[in-house]
Amino acid sequence: MSKSSLSAAGLLSQSESLLERLVFRNRPLMLLLFLLLSLLLGWQATGLRPDASFSKMIPGDHPYIQNFMAHRDDLAGLGNAVRIAVEARQGDIFDADYQQALKQITDEVFFIPGVDRSALKSLWTPNVRWKEVTEEGFVGGPVIPDGYDGSPESLETLRMNVLRSGQVGSLVANDFRSSVIHAPLFDVNPETGERLDYQAFSEQLETLVRDKYQSDLITIRITGFAKVVGDLIEGAAQVVLFFAMALGITALLLYLYTRCLRSALVTLGCSVLAVVWQLGLLRALGYGIDPYSMLVPFLVFAIAVSHGVQVVNGMALEAVRGADPLTAAQRAFRALYIPGLTALLSDGIGFVTLMVIDIAVIQELAVAAAIGVAVIVLTNLVLLPVVMSYLPVSDKALRHLSRQQASYKLWGWLQRFTRPQVAKVTVAGALALALFGVWQAQGLRIGDLDPGTPELRPDSRYNLDNAFMTDNYSTSSDIFVVMAKSAPEQCIIYDNLQLMDQFQWHMANVPGVQSAVSLVDVAKLTLAGMSEGSLKWQALSRNQYLLNNTMNFVPQGLVNADCSLTPVIIFLNDHKAETLERVVDAATAFADRYNSDQLQFLLAAGNSGIEAATNEVIGQAQYQMLALVYAVVGFLCLLTFRSWRTLVCILTPLALTSILCQALMAWLGIGVKVATLPVIALGVGIGVDYGIYIYSKLESYLIRGMSLGDAYLETLRTTGRAVAFTGLTLAIGVGTWMLSPIKFQADMGILLTFMFLWNMLGALILIPALARLLLRPRQPREDGHELSETPVEEIRDAV
Amino acid sequence: MSGSGFIPVALPPMARRCYPLGHLQVLFILSLVFWPLWVQGAERLDRLERPAVSSSLAPHSLLLDIAEADGLLVAVGERGHVVRSEDAGQSWQQAEVPVSVTLTSVHLVDDQYGWAAGHDGVVLVTDDGGRRWRKQLDGHQLNELVVNHYQALLQQVDAGERDDLDPELVATALDDALFARDDGPSKPFLDIYFADRQQGWVVGAYGLFVRTLDGGQSWQPAMLALDNPDNFHLNAIAAAEDVLMIAGEAGALFRSVDQGRSWERLDAGYEGPLFSVTALGSAEQWLLSGLRGRLFVSADGGHSWEAFETSTRSTINAASLLQSGQLLAVGNGGAVLRGSQQHGTFEVRMQADRVSYTGVVELAPGELVLVGQKGVVRASLNGLMEARDE
Question: Cα–Cα distance between B282 and B289 in angstroms, integer?
């Protein structure tokens, strides 16, 4: 023990006995304490509410977001609205029954709390009008003709009014088979001062509109941010189901593994307790639970189970050797205290590195996960052995364990990796795999890659509705907004409009931009309108009086109240990162060149503007976070094992998995985004557990003087099963997310499952191979043991 | 830019003492050093000074007029866009244009020479088949021209040399011209016609009317030649043989039978705006178009007109006599009208995309190139007439 007494583990082992005494001499008191805490935190956890706040999903300190937030009120008309398309299944919208239904739905929407009634638009609201230039000047009226009675004549008048209203493509589909009810929403209800409850609003849309009016004749389609949030919260609620599934599968596996109902239930119970504590603490600290942090309980549960299994496994091993339950528990506690704590600490710190990312949901996920890991230290490293000290592992389980230990052929096979030749080939193979991964990972993209709303699956109802809108209406759902800011009352002056016009054309020429719209277009169209509709006048006039007149025709949302801010709305083909980058580069170049005291172009708002900012933050944080998580995990390993060779042994499998994970993302078309960025940190943080458990055992046998081959075989026989089981539980815990209707949860599920399994395989295969190549042979303590490997046959005989 | 204000004062004397550099060299070096600042100040150019941006979107954005001569097609539109085609409109190249104002009309006299006019009093000329365009006139020059013109006229009137002019009228016109000069180059030209490489006329907003006899090297205001005391917009000009016809706002209609030396006022019996005037093969037969699908045909050189109420309510922007002898008119909201002079009826077809058309030329019988809101469109007459009847 000369070497280990110098190590951190050695230093800690001095205090271990004190802690051990504290825990095991006061077992009833400990149990009472845990019971009280559990009741308190359980009560707290019941108060936890789902929470999906828009502002938390975006990088609050990014200059784009700050610009957006600073002018949010001025842009209010732009963002938050729902569009309800009412589609005629047969024929077109010029049908008496269809119009009757449209009128009813419009009335229904009018009364849903949260809708800005004055701005509500449909064919049946009085603010939708047609206009025409005649010899006498402008004439016009509401689109629904006076005295409309559903007769063929009045429907024909309606058809003409619709054509003259210029609403085709925006309020009426290009193919006249559907029309839209456009309902702007209040973020904060001006009457009550309450914030809009997205979940309740979304539910009302479903019950009062979709369920009520969808029929053989009419299909209802709804899009808008409020609906996305509503669907997200609804989808996230299914997480409870997945949790139950994960719980069930894990319980079954635990039983199959231990063959002891008692230990399986206690492990499960302590792990569930960890989740309850974590949720309770979150609530006590004032956090809610959002669709991202909703996944943390799964992780906590899985990590808790994996550590619990190590404890139960350790106890069973002691019991096989004849120890009574208390001694077994104490010894297991003693043996696992250091590696367990190191592993959990590296998990926790791995999560905490996520705090460098300036996006609140990721930071909250980091906090939630770190709390969870801290809790596991208490529930599964302390409480579990204490409880188990009262409940001996069943004899059946012990028989099962010894049978398994003796007969497990797999261990002999895995032991081959300590042979020099196999080790070389293995390491070379890993290197080749890593190179392949790096090559594949070139295709990795930042941001969301699918069309529609990327939070939800491409074939979700929302995205189908959204695709319907983009197919049948002339508007894109990917909107990038640049704010043109001037002094008050100056937005309309000729020089400013001229520069905005120049900017719009500059942007319209960027590949990926469909069109750009602003106050300038309204001014031009109005000037043409005031010149009897002549297109030759559809240009900015230098005559300021004419320009000022056009202000009367500017719709809400294209200029703020004091004429100091006008959004330039840029419609994009998609929201791929390359498109956004091009748009940002072009807009920034223009702004850098032309911004002056008179007029400034400020980036950025609109869903694509926010996404561009998010992508920038994520692109920067990606490598920063990776470097940090590896530095931290590496430092902890170094502190524990005091050897750079060990460090390489433990970190190499992790690095290989990280690279392959990126290659997998590129291959599956999963972008680096808010949801997938934490995955690698989580994968590395948790994946290091395997390495730490395996290596600490391996080292303890090496120190006793065993050859590498013997030591590894012994490691596998004692802890190999637990490690394999851990990988499996973790993979199952996160694997159920793949079923989630929320796309990003499913993506996280795929990637984490992959990382947990690969990390386990990497640890079992690469660690022995690397150890063979890197570790210097030790002087044997006992005679008869060669430094070279022991032939497998000999080991088999020994067993 | 306080920096650039400070430098010329402080540095040149020092530079002269220390280095054998001239002012220009010093300024050159300084301009390099302070290039970013300098550029920022200078970049914000007026659209009269800023060349049109080369863009692949130019043939597909708003184009307002199209002209054809000897197989060359040229169309003009917003942002100084001029596009040309030598393959019957299959491919289009954007021309080099020194301004980015909206161009409203174009006229080619042959496959080398052509003129274009537009907002801010701009007239452009090309002598290489529309590849490169040069500015011949802009609103600043025009304003000076008009002020000088009326000042000279007023002197002549005061000197008793022009009995034909009402002194009060000239004085008012001069006042207006001075006011317009302060207002800047804000008046658009709306149509242009050149009889040959020398003689041309341009009409525009607020009664604007200028002519040239030397291929645009010098321009003469000709507003007083028209009986247009209310300065109504002049929207269109066309010619047949030696007869010129101008149509404008509030039914304004003028004719010259002596190559523009003198003009008489005609009446089509219509108070609304007339947007186009088209000669139908001779100096006797003309077509006018107005608001809400109104068309007027004359068979006697414009003395009497027959009004057609077509079924469309769209404004008709341009018309053309087809090689088949039929008439084709195009307008806002995708309106396409085909008619025959003999029967006096028009079939109306509204195109499904409801894109407004502003000009049309026929290349071969029934083969058309149209321009409008979405740029150039090649179409066959039969294809257009298959659209839904309104």
Answer: 18
pLDDT value of position B28: 54
- Cα A376–chain centre separation: 23
| Alpha-carbon distance A669 to nearest alpha carbon in chain B (angstroms) | 31
Share of chain B above pLDDT 90, in %: 62
Radius of gyration of chain A (CA): 33
Q: How far apart are CA A556 and CA A127, in angstroms?
A: 12
Q: Which residues of chain B neighbour A135 with C-beta distances below 8 Å?
A: 271-273, 291-292
Does B40 sit within 8 Å of A596, measured CB to CB?
A: yes
For residue A209, being part of any structural domain is answered with: yes
Say which of A135, A531, A593 has its CB closest to residue B40: A593
Contact residues for A380 (Cβ-Cβ < 8 A; gap 6+): A267, A270, A271, A274, A304, A307, A308, A311
pLDDT in tens, A547-587: 888 887 777 678 888 888 999 989 898 888 888 999 999 99
The tokens describing A617, both together, are 């933050």
Range of the domain at A148: 77-234
Q: Is residue B221 within 8 Å of B149, Cβ to Cβ?
A: yes
Of A211, A234, A257, which one is at a domain's C-terminal end?
A: A234
Secondary structure (DSSP) of A60-79: TTSHHHHHHHHTTTTTTTTS
Residue A186 falls inside a structural domain:
yes
pTM of the model: 0.80
The pLDDT tens digits for A435-448 are: 999 999 888 888 87
Same domain membership, residue A323 and residue A407: yes
Low-confidence ranges of chain A (pLDDT < 50): 1-12, 779-799
pLDDT value, residue A340? 84
Is the four-CA dihedral A87, A92, A97, A103 of positive or negative sign? positive
Do both A274 and A292 map to the same domain? yes
> Do A655 and A519 share a structural domain?
no
Testing the interface with A: which of B47, B66, B81, B271 to mutate, by most A Cβ within 10 A? B47
Res A23: pLDDT = 83
- Strand A137-142 and strand A129-134: pairing? antiparallel
- What's the pLDDT at A406? 66
| Structure tokens given for A558 | 């294209």
Question: Which pLDDT score is estimated for A48?
Answer: 80
Q: Is there a contact between A539 and B372 if contact means CB atoms under 8 Å apart?
A: no
Distance from CA of A581 to the nearest CA of B (A): 20
> Which residues sit opposite B263 in a β-bridge?
none
Instruction: Please give the torsion angle defined by the CA atoms of residues A105, A106, A107 and A108, in that order, rounded to the nearest 10 degrees.
Output: 50
Say if A7 falls within a structural domain: no
Residue B120 to residue A499, Cβ atoms within 8 A? no
Which of B53, B183, B190 faces A536 most closely, judged by CB atoms? Answer: B190
Domains and CATH numbers, chain B: 2-43 (no CATH), 58-385 (2.130.10.10)
The better pLDDT of the pair A132, B316 is held by B316
Mutation to test the A interface, candidates B48, B94, B106, B119, most A Cβ within 10 Å? B119
Does residue B291 contact residue B312 with C-beta atoms inside 8 Å? no
Contact B44 A499 (CB under 8 A): yes
Which site among A535, A592, A593 would you substitute to test the B interface, given the most B Cβ atoms closer than 10 Å to its Cβ? A535
Residue A506 with chain B: CB contacts under 8 Å = 53
- For residue A16, the model assigns a pLDDT of 55
CA dihedral A780, A782, A787, A793 (to 10 degrees): -150
Residues 6+ apart with CB under 8 A from A721: A257, A313, A404, A408
Among the three residues A177, A199, A234, which one is the final residue of a domain in this structure?
A: A234
Q: What is the pLDDT of residues B8-65, one digit of tens each?
A: 333 333 333 334 445 555 555 555 544 444 444 446 788 999 999 999 999 999 999 9
User: Is the interface score ipTM higher than 0.85?
Assistant: yes
What pLDDT score does A717 carry? Answer: 83
